């Protein structure tokens, strides 16, 4: 049984490259608004002045030699700013916050696929975000090769090796089974409409 959510809930949406998160977020936001919630929709890294600068650095293919340790701290810095400047105040006002990627991305990409250690990165993420964890996370599950084909492998993260992206996909599955109360697994292989209907069913259960 998942807990019931309402005003001030914190939702995240997660998944490998090309899993369709950014297509689903507007549907989620529309659904929440039509049910009377005030919604703040954001994506990581970014959505603050500092965060957008960090995003540019992290995603630009010009920066070929960013180490995994440096990458970790850059993602954490962007999030630390976002949590204090945007997320916590919005939750305090009773808004529902919908965030496209959050700490599961760091645990999976840097901790598991990047080899920095799942537990260690999980602890660091919790500390960096003042202990703020999502109430529910939708994990859009898609074979990584399909996702990379959809995304076109344009930015620095997408251009990492196939082995890296295979570890990302596997990492998410492991994480989902370890946090089954929080993480809702959605099969992202089907068409956009069916993926949305599955998410909508979950939202109805969570917010009724
Ligand atoms: P983005 O263009 O937002 O990709 P997507 O549409 O797939 O979310 O780029 C974010 C990239 O950064 C994506 O490849 C995942 C990666 N990432 C990490 O490696 N660690 C993190 O903590 C976060 C938030 C993102």
Topology, please?
Layout lengths: L9 E5 L6 H14 L4 E5 L5 H11 L8 H25 L3 E5 L2 H11 L4 H11 L7 E6 L2 H8 L10 H17 L4 E5 L4 H16 L1
Thymidine-5'-diphosphate binds next to helix 1 and helix 4.
Structural class: alpha/beta
Please estimate the helix content.
40-55%
**Second CATH tier, the architecture:** 3-Layer(aba) Sandwich
- Beta-strand segment tally: 5
Name the CATH superfamily classification.
P-loop containing nucleotide triphosphate hydrolases
Number of domains: 1
Largest sheet: 5 strands, parallel
Question: How does this structure look, described?
Answer:
With 208 residues, the protein is α/β, with parallel strands linked by helices. It has 8 helices and 5 strands; from the N terminus they run βαβααβααβααβα. A 5-stranded parallel β-sheet has the order 2-3-1-4-5, sandwiched between helices. Helix 1 packs across helix 8 (192-207). The longest helix has 25 residues, at 68-92. The relative contact order is 0.21. Residues 17, 21-22, 43-45, 59, 75, 100-101, 105-106, 109-110, 155, 157-158 line the site of thymidine-5'-diphosphate (TYD).
Which characteristics define this entry?
binds thymidine-5'-diphosphate; five-stranded parallel sheet; Rossmann fold; single chain; alpha/beta; 8 helices; 208 residues
Summarize this entry quickly.
The chain has 208 residues and is an alpha/beta fold. 54% of the residues lie in helices and 12% in strands.
């Amino acid at each position: 049984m998942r807990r019931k959510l309402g005003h001030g809930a914190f939702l995240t949406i997660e998944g490998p490259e090309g899993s369709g998160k950014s297509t689903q977020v507007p549907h989620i936001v529309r659904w929440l608004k039509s049910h009377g919630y005030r919604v703040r929709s954001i994506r990581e890294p970014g959505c603050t002045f500092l965060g957008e600068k960090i995003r540019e650095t992290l995603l630009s293919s010009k920066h070929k030699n960013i180490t995994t340790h440096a990458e970790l701290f850059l993602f954490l810095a962007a999030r630390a700013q976002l949590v204090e400047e945007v997320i916590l105040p919005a939750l305090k006002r009773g808004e529902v916050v919908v965030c496209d990627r959050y700490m599961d991305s760091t645990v999976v990409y840097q901790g598991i696929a990047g080899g920095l250690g799942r537990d260690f990165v999980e602890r660091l993420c919790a500390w960096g975000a003042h202990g703020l964890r999502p109430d529910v996370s939708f994990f859009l599950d898609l074979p990584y090769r399909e996702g990379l084909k959809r995304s076109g492998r344009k930015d620095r993260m997408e251009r990492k090796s196939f082995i890296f992206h295979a570890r990302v996909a596997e990492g998410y599955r492991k994480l989902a089974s370890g946090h089954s109360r929080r993480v809702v697994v959605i099969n992202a292989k089907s068409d956009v409409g069916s993926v949305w209907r599955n998410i909508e069913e979950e939202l109805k259960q969570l917010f009724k």
